[in-house]
Amino acid sequence: MTAIPAPATPGSTALLLLLLRARTFVALILVLAFFAFAAPNFLSAANAVIVSKHVALNAFLAIGMTFVIITGGIDLSVGSIVGLCAMVAGWLVLNGIDLGLGWSIQFNTLEIALLVMLVGVGVGLINGLLITWLNVAPFIATLGTLYVARGAALLSSDGRTFPNLGGNAEYGSASFPWIGSGTILGLPVMIWMLVLVGLLASYISRRTPLGRYIYAVGGNERGAALSGVKVTRVKMFVYMFSGLCAALVGLIIASQLQASHPATGETFELNAIAAAVLGGTSMSGGRGRIGGTIVGAFVIGILSDGLIMMGVSSFWQTVIKGLVIIAAVVIDQAQSKLQARVALQQEAAAGR
């Protein structure tokens, strides 16, 4: 009996699947090429530094959002957490914690940063508790905390700005502006922070049991639970990590501007979702890569800054970002269907 070789996947299908998987890099090359010709001085060194700073802020949020979406959830509260944490940073720099009777606790820069991050993790913890213990849908839970965090930010100053956040040398907070405006080896501090957070997130997702559990929960939550995965703990972690990333953005913005406003971070969640989805994270959960998300953040950042340099109306910028999100989801669905079809063809061929 002569064995019949399994038919290979058609070349056109394989090529299409490769292009879909590499869509983020293709999009990055296209937007870079377009704005290099359409926007004067877009590729200048000075503009590259500005773009990298904008990208870093979105990338922080997108990294946290990636973990959340991989588990099949969503975090709409990250923009409001940014605003709340910026206001907390401003309050601590200017006032410390008032104990009454003329006494107060003042903090140095490191302590301020740690407290701000603790606030972000705390809001993420609340999101996790609502979703895991009270079984509130992620969309509703994080929509609620979006309003609560934004309201708390407004209440902290009656809607006013905390200005002049230069810090106080006497209390060790004079270095606060360095977080957002300082450099190390010629690169902005926030870029080094992004590198550390990106490497940590990538290591967790690819090299640790926790990372495997995150993908397992998103792929099949019931199956993961039956396999012994602590689903509640995994979900708590991803929302707390998302809150931490949002807190870092709030801290950086307050430091960079040396001022904090309660409206800081409005609509930031949309850019984070767009970057994650454009980077290959599936909205249905179970698939996504931190590296792809960072590239997606570059695409969104370059698109935003390029449109501004071209003088495109902010209204049209919003429309274009919305179209990018829709296109990314449509392409993701196409990739999923194509991968499923290829898998079925390979199984059929193997069964011959």
Give, in spatial order, the strands making up the sheet with the most strands.
Answer: 1-2
Structural class: mainly alpha
**What is the string of helix and strand elements?**
HHHHEEHHHEEHHHHHHH
Termini separation comes to 13 Å
Helicity range: over 70%
Oligomer: single chain
Rounded to the nearest angstrom, the radius of gyration is 22 Å
List low-confidence stretches: 1-8
Number of strands: 4
On the 0 to 100 scale, the average pLDDT is: 88
What characterizes the major β-sheet?
Answer: 2 strands, antiparallel
Percent of sequence in beta strands: under 5%
Count helical runs: 14
Global morphology: globular
Keywords:
single chain, 4 strands, mainly alpha, transmembrane, globular, 352 residues, two-stranded antiparallel ribbon, 3% strand
